[in-house]
Design goal:
The protein is built from eight helices and five strands; from the N terminus they run ααββααβαββααα. It is an alpha+beta fold and 244 residues long. It folds into two domains: 170 residues, Beta-Lactamase (2-Layer Sandwich), CATH 3.30.450; 64 residues, Arc Repressor Mutant, subunit A (Orthogonal Bundle). The protein has a five-stranded antiparallel β-sheet with strand order 2-1-5-4-3. Strand 4 and strand 5 form a beta hairpin. Helix 1 packs parallel to helix 6, helix 3 runs antiparallel to helix 5 and helix 6 crosses helix 8. The longest helix is centred in the C-terminal third of the chain and has 55 residues.
Length: 244
C-alpha cells in the first residue's frame, strides 16, 4: 500500500523531532520541508520562516535559509505584517503584491529592498498557550495562487501536531531545568544555614538573617554566598539528591 503525501510528511516530521536537539533546530528543518513543498506547488523558489509565539513573546525561531530568517525578523522589527496578522486572525493572510498593497507600507518597503514581491502567512494553532506561523516569501508577484495556499494550509494541518509535540517537550525540559535549579539553590541555602547555626549557636531564622546580610554586603546572590560557605567547610559544593 502506497503511503499518502500527508503520511510521508508526518513520518518526516517525526524523524525531525527525534533527530534534532531543540525546538529551533526542529522548526528550521520544518521550514525547509515547507519551502520545498510550496516551491514545487508554485513553480518558483519559495523561502520559509517560522514564527513562534509563546505567552507574550513572539520570535522568529527557524528558516529554510539564513535569508528567510532575516526576512521573517523584519516583520518582528516593524511589528506588523501578514505573518503576525495570521497569528491574530487564525487564518492565512496573503500579501500578493508588495508594491501595490496598502496595508503595511513600512514592512513592504523593506521587502522591496530585499527583492521580495509576495508573502503568505499561515498559522498553526498549538496547545500549551503557544501558536506558530509559517511565513512564505517569493521573489515574484502573485506567486500564491489558491492551489498554493491550499497546499500551505494542508502542510500546516499535518505539521501542527508535530510542532505542538516539539513545543511541549521543550516546555517540559525547561520546567525540569527550573525545578532542578530551584532545588539546588534551596539545598545550598539550607546547608549554609545549618553551618551558621552550628558556628554561632543561633536559631535558623537568625542564621538566615546572617546569610542575607552577607549577601547584601557582598552584593552577591544568596545562593552564591551559601555555596561558598558550604564549599569552604566541606571542601565540595552542595549536592542535591537528584544530582547524585
Amino acid at each position: 500500500m502506497t503511503n499518502s503525501p500527508e503520511h510521508e510528511l508526518l513520518l518526516e516530521l517525526q524523524d525531525l523531532i527525534v533527530g534534532t536537539g531543540s525546538v529551533a533546530e526542529f522548526l528550521g528543518g520544518l521550514s525547509v520541508s515547507a519551502a520545498s513543498a510550496l516551491s514545487r506547488s508554485a513553480g518558483t523558489a519559495i523561502e520559509c520562516g517560522v514564527t513562534l509565539k509563546h505567552g507574550r513573546r513572539t520570535a522568529t525561531v527557524g528558516g529554510s535559509t539564513d535569508r528567510a530568517v532575516e526576512l521573517d525578523r523584519i516583520e518582528q522589527q516593524v511589528g506588523d505584517g501578514p505573518c503576525i496578522a495570521a497569528l491574530k486572525v487564525k487564518q492565512p493572510v496573503l500579501l500578493a503584491d508588495v508594491r501595490t498593497d496598502p496595508r503595511w507600507p513600512d514592512y513592504q518597503q523593506r521587502l522591496i529592498e530585499e527583492g521580495v514581491q509576495s508573502v503568505l502567512g499561515v498559522p498553526l494553532e498549538l496547545s500549551q498557550g503557544a501558536t506558530a506561523a509559517l511565513n512564505f516569501f517569493s521573489p515574484v508577484t502573485d506567486a500564491f495562487s489558491k492551489a498554493v495556499i491550499d497546499e500551505a494550509v494542508s502542510f500546516a494541518d499535518v505539521a501542527r501536531n508535530a510542532v505542538g509535540l516539539a513545543v511541549r517537550v521543550a516546555t517540559a525540559e525547561d520546567a525540569a531545568d527550573d525545578l532542578s535549579a530551584a532545588m539546588a539553590s534551596r539545598t545550598a541555602i539550607n546547608l549554609a544555614c545549618g553551618i551558621i547555626m552550628g558556628q554561632n549557636r543561633c536559631t535558623q531564622n537568625e542564621a538566615m538573617d546572617i546569610l542575607i546580610k552577607v549577601s547584601s554586603h557582598r552584593n552577591q546572590k544568596l545562593r552564591v554566598v551559601a555555596e561558598e560557605i558550604v564549599t569552604k567547610v566541606s571542601g565540595a559544593g552542595p549536592t542535591t539528591y537528584f544530582d547524585m
